[in-house]
């Protein structure tokens, strides 16, 4: 029993890691640009298919494809910003709808390029640590955990220690006042979009060998990400990380001890509970203007 | 003239807020704009700094037309705007707030020098530099807003109701700071509802009424004007 619980903890840490990468990117984009990126799950999918294309089909080393996934999906983010978020800046609903259109384009491209069936990827390594008797952590999962810790720490440093980091937070808090400091919302939005999309791309690339990508894998991820950002408090980056950990633990434990459907329902109940107790989310302070 | 507004019209959703405002600001001293709620004072400042587009008219700053520039380009020309309600960044520290004011500047050493200069003007901000701006008192937040504007090294400072919601002692402190800034060579456009205060510190004044300039003249003269006395000084 102890092993089972410990194993579930390990699994939850893994789940929390890639979910935070996805949720933080979504929150960053929403915070800076005020728009909900419905295509975020498909950016994650695009990261996974970068691995399918380069690693499985061409034989590029795995870690090179992960970096390629970050850059490629980051550039997709830039494309989204330039082609519709920017022209629709004063129309958040329009931006949301355009992102749904983009989601369909990405999905269709994946279907046309790779087919609708699951892509099985041979993991770059089968090695694992046996933490204690009966509790294992595969190297592949460890990579995801390390990547999440490293990338989120770097993001934190960027936001707290650099001029563009302050500017990004300033835009998220008061765009007009930020413009009065000479901060260009377009420039900051491009950076936010690249980072937010790139993080989803990395999550997709690193988890690809563990989840068997399909063109539709973005759906469940985006629903989870929305629950996480509502629990954490919309627009709160730290909130997204804490909520991702909370959600991952609850979801993984319920899945292990009951089943996946009950776990999904529990996740929604968790969101409702938070909304009833603290409507602004765990970390939210006030309604956004 | 350092700044000149020529026949500026501004509309919010087709409703006119400014109906031909012309204003001149020399390169030293304080010019004030007074007027009742909704007269168009804030709108005038927002038109200058590029936050609100003008429908017609021209704005000239130091020999260049700036009325088509977006706000982030106007700052680059040297106009700093402390907006109504201060609009500091609540979830940035005091120091981070001040540093965002220097966003466009590239000379690091100069920026560090100016940060020390701002801390010299506002010692209370230095003590609280690592505190979240939202935890500061109203007067301190006004100091953050003014300090942030100074960090851009402006050639002209626009202040929108710096006295709003502050206790009389704090207002006096803010006034002393504004006067010191002007003395060091940065001209100020001061928008105020507190007409007594405004006419005392300014050298020239404009009275705005429903989107037009109804009166203009030396601040001392307007202070003695019967209409101004009745309508704005409550005498
Ligand atoms: N964002 C806006 N949308 C629509 N109308 C606006 C907007 N901002 C201002 N107005 C209108 O424009 C007119 C001028 O407003 P403005 O804020 O410039 O006045 P003000 O002189 O600064 O007043 P106060 O002393 O209350 O700050 C008012 O009638 C106001 O209702
Ligand atoms: Mg006003």
Describe it for me?
The complex is a heterodimer of chains A (289) and B (235). In chain A, a hairpin with a 2-residue loop joins strand 1 (128-132) and strand 2. The mean pLDDT of chain A is 91. Chain A has a domain at 16-216. Helices cover 76% and strands 3% of the residues of chain A. Chain A has helices at 2-33, 40-58, 62-85, 92-114, 139-161, 163-173, 175-180, 185-211, 218-232, 237-257, 260-277; strands at 128-132, 135-138. Chain A has 11 helices and 2 strands; from the N terminus they run ααααββααααααα. Chain B is of the alpha/beta class and 235 residues long. In chain B, the strands form 2 sheets. In chain B, strands 6-7-8-3-9-10 form a 6-stranded mixed β-sheet, with helices on both faces. In chain B, strands 2-1-4-5 form a 4-stranded antiparallel β-sheet, with helices on one face. The chains are: A mainly alpha (289), B alpha/beta (235). Chains A and B meet through helix 6 and helix 7 of A and helix 2 and helix 3 of B. The complex binds adenosine-5'-triphosphate (ATP) and magnesium ion (MG). Residues 12, 17, 35, 37-43, 84, 193 of chain B line the site of adenosine-5'-triphosphate (ATP).
- Rg on CA atoms of chain B, Å: 17 Å
CATH superfamily of chain B: P-loop containing nucleotide triphosphate hydrolases
Uncertain runs of chain B: none
Q: Fraction of residues of chain B in helices?
A: 25-40%
Can you identify the CATH class of chain B? Alpha Beta
Return the CATH topology of chain B: Rossmann fold
Mean pLDDT of chain B equals 95
Which architecture name of chain B does CATH use? Answer: 3-Layer(aba) Sandwich
Sheet of most strands of chain A: 2 strands, antiparallel
* Class inferred from helices and paired strands of chain B: alpha/beta
Bound molecules: adenosine-5'-triphosphate, magnesium ion
Measured as a percent range, the helix fraction of chain A is over 70%
Distance between the termini of chain B: 33 Å
| Chain-averaged pLDDT of chain A | 91
Helix count of chain B equals 10
Q: Helix/strand-derived class of chain A?
A: mainly alpha
Order of helices and strands of chain A: HHHHEEHHHHHHH
Are there runs of chain A of 5+ residues with pLDDT below 50, and where?
none
The greatest interface here is: A-B, 17 and 25 residues
The major sheet of chain B is characterized as: 6 strands, mixed
């Amino acid at each position: 029993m102890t092993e089972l619980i410990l194993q579930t903890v390990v699994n939850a840490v893994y789940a929390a890691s890639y979910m935070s990468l996805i949720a933080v990117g979504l929150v960053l984009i929403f915070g800076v640009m005020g728009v909900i990126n419905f295509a975020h799950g498909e950016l994650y999918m695009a990261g996974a298919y970068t691995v399918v294309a380069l690693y499985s089909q061409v034989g590029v080393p795995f870690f090179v494809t992960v970096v390629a996934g970050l850059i490629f999906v980051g550039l997709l983010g830039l494309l989204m910003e330039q082609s519709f978020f920017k022209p629709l800046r004063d129309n958040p609903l329009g931006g949301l709808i355009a992102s749904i259109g983009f989601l369909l384009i990405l999905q269709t491209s994946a279907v046309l390029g790779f087919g609708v069936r699951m892509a099985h990827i041979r993991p770059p390594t089968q090695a694992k640590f046996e933490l204690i008797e009966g509790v294992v952590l595969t190297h592949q999962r460890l990579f995801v955990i390390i990547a999440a810790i490293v990338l989120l720490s770097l993001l934190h440093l960027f936001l707290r220690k650099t001029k563009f980091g302050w500017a990004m937070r300033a835009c998220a808090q008061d765009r007009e006042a930020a413009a009065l400091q000479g901060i260009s919302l377009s420039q900051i939005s491009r950076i936010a979009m690249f980072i937010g999309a790139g993080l989803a791309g990395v999550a997709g690339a690193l988890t690809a060998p563990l989840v068997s990508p399909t063109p539709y894998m973005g759906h469940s991820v985006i629903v989870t990400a929305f629950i996480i950002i509502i629990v954490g408090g919309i627009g709160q980056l730290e909130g997204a990380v804490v909520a991702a950990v909370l959600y991952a633990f609850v979801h993984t434990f319920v899945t292990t001890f009951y089943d996946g459907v009950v776990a999904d329902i529990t996740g929604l109940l968790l969101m409702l509970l938070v909304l009833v107790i603290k409507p602004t989310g765990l970390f939210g302070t006030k309604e956004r203007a | 003239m350092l700044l000149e507004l020529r026949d500026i019209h501004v509309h919010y959703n087709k409703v006119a807020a400014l109906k031909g405002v012309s204003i001149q600001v020399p390169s030293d001293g304080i010019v004030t704009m007074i007027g009742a709620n909704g007269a168009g004072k804030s709108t005038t400042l927002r038109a200058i700094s590029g936050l609100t587009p003008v429908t017609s008219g021209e704005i000239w700053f130091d020999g260049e037309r700036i009325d088509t520039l977006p706000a982030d380009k106007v700052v680059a020309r040297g106009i700093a705007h402390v907006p109504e309600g201060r609009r500091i960044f609540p979830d940035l520290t005091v120091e981070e707030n001040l540093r965002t004011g220097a966003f466009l500047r590239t000379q690091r050493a100069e920026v560090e020098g100016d940060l020390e200069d701002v801390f010299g003007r506002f010692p209370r901000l230095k003590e609280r530099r690592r505190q979240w701006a939202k935890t500061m008192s109203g007067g301190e937040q006004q100091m953050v807003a003014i300090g942030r504007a100074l960090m851009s090294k402006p050639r002209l400072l626009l202040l929108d109701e710096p006295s709003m919601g502050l206790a009389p002692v704090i207002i006096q402190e803010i006034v002393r700071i504004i006067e010191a800034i002007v003395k060091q060579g940065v001209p100020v456009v001061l928008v105020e509802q507190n007409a007594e205060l405004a006419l005392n510190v300014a050298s020239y004044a404009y009275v705005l009424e429903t989107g037009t300039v109804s009166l203009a003249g030396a601040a001392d003269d307007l202070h003695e004007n019967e209409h101004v006395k009745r309508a704005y000084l409550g005498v």
